[in-house]
C-alpha cells in the first residue's frame, strides 16, 4: 500500500488584524467583503486568479460541514444522493450490511467501497456497515428510545447528513479487530476520518467511537490526520493559516476558507478545478486542485 504524504508546502501568513477579526466570533470585521482581505492580496501575487461568488446557503452544505450539538445540520447539509445500499449491489461489494435498509450517500458509498477494496489487498476483509444515513424522524426515535447519553437529538448527528457511517468488524470489537486497526491507519488516505478519536473527547463532546467514520474528502482527511485535529478544529486551523497548499495522492491543492456573511467573493487560481464546501460555521472552504 502506497503511503501518501501530505505536505503543507506553503502557508501564507496573514496580518494580525485579519486574524484577530476572524477569531472574534460575531465581530463586525467578519461582516466585511473580502476585497481588502490580506490573504487574497497575498495570493494574487502568485499568479492569475478568477473570482467565485459565494452565498450564505453554501456555508451549510458540502463534505466539510461541522455537525455537532452546537452546529445542527441544515437542509442544505443533507446530501442529495442518499440511496438504499441493498438496492445497489455495485456499491456494496466486499462488505456486509448489518441492517438491510441501510442508506448512505451514493458518492460516499463509492469512496467507502474503494477503501474496502484497498483493505482487501492487505488481506483485511471482514467489514460491515452497522449504520449509515438516518433521517430526522429516525434520529428522533433513536434519541427518544436511547436517551441523551447514547444518541444525539435530530439534526445534531452526522448520520443525518449521509456523510457518516458506523463500521464494524465481523471478527469482534472494532477497536481491536484487524478492520478497526486497518481503518485507523489508512482511512485518511481515502478521504475518511475517525471522527471521535480517543484523545479528542473534550473537543468533540463525544466518547471514543472506533466505528464512526466521516467522509471529508482529500486532501482534507490527510491534513486533519497530519496535524492531529478534530473536525471541530479544522476550520479554525485553516482560518489561522490563511491560504495553504497541500499535496495528496500526487495532486496539489490550494485551500482557503472564506467568511460568507450573506455574500462574499473567493479568488482562486484561474485554471484550477474548484470544490466548495461550507464549514457550517459561517464560512466556505474553497479547495482548488492545481494544474
Ligand atoms: Zn456513528
TrEMBL record:
Domain D-alanyl-D-alanine carboxypeptidase-like core: 103-217
Origin: domain of life: Bacteria
GO molecular function per UniProt: carboxypeptidase activity
Keyword vocabulary terms for this entry: Carboxypeptidase, Hydrolase, Protease
InterPro entries: DD-CPase-like, VanY-like_core_dom, VanY/YodJ_core_dom, Zn_M74/Hedgehog-like
Coiled-coil region(s): none
Keyword Transmembrane part of the UniProt annotation: no
BP terms from Gene Ontology: proteolysis
Statement: the UniProt record of this protein carries the keyword Hydrolase: yes
Pfam family, one: VanY
The protein's name: D-alanyl-D-alanine carboxypeptidase
Source organism per UniProt: Paenibacillus methanolicus
